[in-house]
């Protein structure tokens, strides 16, 4: 018995002396000696929060101030879908995105992020096979301004809620630039988004063990958990379809697209905190659909795997693992255009190949803190052909050109764009 006790304490002593493995490139944290103990603790905490939320669920569906990490922010879909009031924080956000693609090679990305000072970070680009890629004339800048306080209307692009979780209308009237030729074309978009699918709430529907592993990789401290709390944003997504048409000069083209739509709102979205992410959304010929990827935001989650899949019979399930290490894919700033990886959902590993056909580069934030690439792709998932959009992000430190900032409305020129002491 004494021998076993000595052996136990000796092994325990040497185990405690182990140092944390060095993060990849000094950024991407790796599992340490307490990884599984920490992960189990977080997993149980999430499950406990889920249990408490069910016990305290209110019939009036008011928002939950303790949302996230197993708990939904709200259950009233009208409250969720409509434009959210911005907090007083300079970096408050209320954003929607329509990321869509078709089997015929047509693609459409339309996004608006409502910010303070009536600024909307806006992305609008489309690809028609016989025409090419067209982009908003302000791109690669996304800093646009609106007179509409509580809607997603800016510089010709309008996205309007019709029926919560069922129907939206999208329209655009104005010029667009041909990305490769540099020519200007008059474009009119009239389209309708519809869906009968359930939405996926990232506050409550993500796989608990996946979140637990991501948090367990990080070095813990009081400051760490405070950063996690501050960085939280309410985010949900829904798959659907877009039908309509786009008229380019005098020629009209039909649009029949599969869509990933999302809505994000929160007190803070600080692009300076985000190092990278690589996200893929896809639809295959057999009806299998998904949204998945990896996010690196040092200080909170340096390696967060996330997403969900939708089977052909309408079943939605969270992604459990994404074998797509960002540090091995384009860490130097060049986004990969022909690559493959694996992901796990419903206990099954899937293989996915990605081939980028075209891409559009834009910059987000007052100082262009984020560089985003909307990539129009062909996919092969478990050997089945598919299509979709891949969005990759890189931290950008080159700043926004002064000649663009000088054209911003006068009322924005001398106003703090970031919290005091952060600029």
Question: What is the distance, rounded to the nearest whole angstrom, between the alpha carbons of the first and last residues?
Answer: 62 Å
Count of alpha and pi helical runs = 6
Main β-sheet description:
8 strands, antiparallel, barrel
Rg over CA atoms: 22 Å
Backbone structural class? alpha+beta
Note the run of SSEs as H and E. Answer: HHHEEEEEEEEEEHHEEEEEEEEEEH
Rough outline: globular
Number of domains: 1
Poorly predicted residue ranges: 10-15, 59-63
Q: How much helicity do the residues have?
A: 10-25%
Mean pLDDT: 92
Number of strands: 20
**β-strand amount:** 35-45%
Main sheet strand line-up: 1-2-3-4-8-9-11-12
Can you walk me through this structure?
- It is a single chain.
- This protein has 423 residues and is an alpha+beta fold.
- It has one domain.
- 15% of the residues lie in helices and 44% in strands.
- It contains 6 helices and 20 strands.
- The protein has helices at residues 2-16, 35-55, 77-81, 208-216, 222-231, 402-405; strands spanning 93-101, 107-114, 119-128, 132-135, 143-145, 152-154, 157-163, 167-178, 184-194, 200-201, 234-248, 251-266, 276-284, 289-297, 301-310, 316-323, 338-345, 348-364, 370-381, 384-395.
- The protein has an 8-stranded antiparallel barrel with strand order 1-2-3-4-8-9-11-12. An 8-stranded antiparallel beta barrel has the order 13-14-15-16-17-18-19-20.
- Strand 19 (370-381) and strand 20 form a beta hairpin.
- Helix 2 (35-55) packs across helix 4 (208-216).
- The protein is globular and about 65 Å long.
- The termini are far apart.
- Residues 10-15 and 59-63 have low confidence and may be disordered.
């Amino acid at each position: 018995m004494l021998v076993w006790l000595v052996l136990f304490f000796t092994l325990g002593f040497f185990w405690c002396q182990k140092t944390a493995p060095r993060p990849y490139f000094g950024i991407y944290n790796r599992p340490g000696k307490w990884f599984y103990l920490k992960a189990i603790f977080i997993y149980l905490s999430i499950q406990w929060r889920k249990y408490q939320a069910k016990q305290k669920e209110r019939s009036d569906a008011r928002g939950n101030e303790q949302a996230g990490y197993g708990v939904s922010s709200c259950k009233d879909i009208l409250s969720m879908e409509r434009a959210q009031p911005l907090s007083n924080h300079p970096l408050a956000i209320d954003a929607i995105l329509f990321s869509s693609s078709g089997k015929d090679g047509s693609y459409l990305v339309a996004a608006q992020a409502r910010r303070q000072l009536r600024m909307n970070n806006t992305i609008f680009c489309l690809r028609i096979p016989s025409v090419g890629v067209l982009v908003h004339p302000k791109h690669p800048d996304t800093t646009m301004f609106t007179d509409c306080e509580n809607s997603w209307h800016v510089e010709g692009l309008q996205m309007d809620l019709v029926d919560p979780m069922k129907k939206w209308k999208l329209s655009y009237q104005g010029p667009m630039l041909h990305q490769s030729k540099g020519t200007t074309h008059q474009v009119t978009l009239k389209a309708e988004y519809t869906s009968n699918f359930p939405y996926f709430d990232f506050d409550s529907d993500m796989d608990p063990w996946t979140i637990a592993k991501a948090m367990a990789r990080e070095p813990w401290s009081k400051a760490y958990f405070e950063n996690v709390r501050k960085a939280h944003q309410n985010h949900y997504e829904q798959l659907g379809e877009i039908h309509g048409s786009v008229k380019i000069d005098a020629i009209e083209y039909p649009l029949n697209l599969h869509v990933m739509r999302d809505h994000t709102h929160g007190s803070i979205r600080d692009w300076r905190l985000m190092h990278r992410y690589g996200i893929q959304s896809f639809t295959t010929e057999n009806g299998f659909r998904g949204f998945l990827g990896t996010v690196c935001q040092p200080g909170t989650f340096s390696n967060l795997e996330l997403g969900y899949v939708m089977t052909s019979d309408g079943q939605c399930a969270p992604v459990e693992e994404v074998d797509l290490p960002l540090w091995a894919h384009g860490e130097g700033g060049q986004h990969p255009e022909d690559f493959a990886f694996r992901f796990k959902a419903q206990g099954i590993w899937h293989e996915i190949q990605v081939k980028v056909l075209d891409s559009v580069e834009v910059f987000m934030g007052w100082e262009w803190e984020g560089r985003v690439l909307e990539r129009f792709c062909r996919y092969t998932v478990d050997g089945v052909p598919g299509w979709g959009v891949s969005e990759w992000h890189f931290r950008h430190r080159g700043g926004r050109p002064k000649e663009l900032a000088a054209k911003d409305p006068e009322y924005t020129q001398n106003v703090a764009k970031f919290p005091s002491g952060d600029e």
